[in-house]
Amino acid sequence: MILGLCHIALGQQLNLYWVHKIGVLAVLLITVTGVVSIDDLWRDEWDIILISLQSTGPFLHLGAVAAMTALGWIVAGQVVRGERTRFQVLLLLLYVCVLLALYLTPLTISSPCIMDRSNLKPQPTIISRRGAPMLAPENTVMSFNKALQQKVSGFEADVTISADGVAFLMRDHTLHRTTDVDRVFPRRQHEDASLFTWPEIRSLNAGLWFLKDDPYWTAQFMSVKERGRAANQTVCSLVELLRLAVKTNRTVMLSLRSPPPQHPRHELWISDALKAVQRSGIQSEQVMWMKDWYRKKVRSAVPRPEQTDEKLSAEEFKERGIRTVSLHYSQATEPEIRRFRGSNVSVNVYPVNEPWLYSVLWCSGVDSVSSDAPHVLRKVPRPIWLMSPDEYCLIWVMADVISAAVVIGMFIFQRWRMSGMRSYNPEQIMLSAVVRRSSRDVSIMKEKLIFSEINNGVSSTDELPLYTEHGYEGYARDTISR
C-alpha cells in the first residue's frame, strides 16, 4: 500500500503483477483469519478497545491529523495535474470532508483525564487478587506476603470447599494447573478440586509449577532464597488468609465457588465457609462477599456493610444498605461511577493490571481496584497524563490551524510546480539538451514530454529509433532546421 502511494505520488502508472495480487490476497486472508480467531478467543475483551480510546483518543486524533496532512501532498499532486476530471473532483471532496471531520473530532472525544487537576480524586487503593501472582505462586502464603510488600489495602480470593468441609483458596476448577496433582494423584488430575479432602490437598506442592512454567517471566529474577521458598509452597486455606488479614489489618473480598451436586458438603458448603470466617477471628467489617446470589444466605450469620456486583438505583443501594459496588472494568463507565459516588457508594473495579487503565479509572474517580499486578500499579504515583480542558482546546486549535496552513501550502506549491510543466511543448523540451537550463526546468520539460506523448497517443517505441541513432542533439538539430 505504501509503495503504491509512492508510485501515485510520483505520477507513475501502478502495474500489479500476479505475484503482487497473490500477496495482497494472502495478507487479506491472514488478516481476516487473525481477527476471527482473536474474536473467538477473546470475545469478552473487545470492550477494552473502547476504554483504551478514553486514554489514547486525544493523541490518536493528533496522529490522524498529521497523517492526513501528509497525505495532502499526494492528493494535491493528483488534483492539480492536467484537465479537471470527475475523479479529481471526487478525490478533492473526499479529502476535504475527511480532513474537516478530523478537525472537529475533539467535539466527540470524552476522556476522564481531561479535567482540572483540582478535581482529581485521591489515588485508588489496590486490592491484590490471588496475592501477587506475578511475583510468587498464586493463592499461597508467600504470594499474599509479597502483596503486603506492595502496600495493598486488601486481598481478593476465590474460595472452594473440600470434600471434608475445609475452605481453601483455588481459582481453577481443578488442581492440574497450580499443583503437582498429576504426579501425586495421576488418575485424578482432572477431577474437581472440591472432591479432594484437605489432607490430600495439603500434600500437594503449589509452587514448583511457577518456577517451571514461569508464566509471567518473573521467576528467573527471583533470588535463590525466594526460589527455595516458592518451591515449598502449599495450597493456602481460607483461615490462613483471614488470620493474615487480621494481623495486618487488611480487608478481604471473597468469591465462593459452589461445589458440584455430588459433593459430600453440597448442602453445607456456605456454613463451612462461615465457620472458617468465625474461627479466624476477623471482624465482620473486614470481609466482603463478591457474589449476590449467596450473599443473602450469609447476611444473617455475619452482619456487615454490604457489597454488590450489580448496578442498582440509589434507592436500592440505600434499601439494602450497600456501601460498595464491584464492577468489571468493561462496566465501569465514568457516568456510572459518578452516579455511584453520588449515592455514597464506593466503587471497586477488577481486574486492573495496566498503568494506563489504572490512570483512566483514577481520573474517573474509582475508590479501589483489584489487580494481579500490585507491584506494577504501585509505581504509578499520578495519572499517566492529565490535561485541563483549556489546555486540550489550545492544542486542538493549534493542531488544526497548522494542519490547514500546511495543506493549503502543499496545494499552492504543487500548482506552482505543475504550472511550469504546462508552459512547455515537446520541441522546447528537446531544445533543453543544447540550451543550458536549470535542473528544475529540465525535469519539468521531461515530465511534460511524457504526459504530452501519452495524451497524444504517441508510444515510446515510435521514438526509439530517433533517440538511438541521433540522440538528443540530433533531434534538437532536426527541430531547429525545420
TrEMBL record:
It is found in: Membrane. One of its GO terms (molecular function) is glycerophosphodiester phosphodiesterase activity. It is a multi-pass membrane protein. Its main location: membrane. PROSITE patterns: GP_PDE. Pfam families: GDPD. Keywords: Glycoprotein, Hydrolase, Membrane, Transmembrane, Transmembrane helix. GO terms for cellular component: plasma membrane. Residues 124-381 form the GP-PDE domain. The chain crosses the membrane at residues 18-38, 58-77, 89-109, 394-413. InterPro entries: GP_PDE_dom, PLC-like_Pdiesterase_TIM-brl. Belongs to the glycerophosphoryl diester phosphodiesterase family. PANTHER family: GLYCEROPHOSPHODIESTER PHOSPHODIESTERASE DOMAIN-CONTAINING 5A (PTHR23344:SF49), GLYCEROPHOSPHORYL DIESTER PHOSPHODIESTERASE (PTHR23344). This is Glycerophosphodiester phosphodiesterase domain-containing protein 5 isoform X2. It comes from Ictalurus punctatus (Channel catfish).
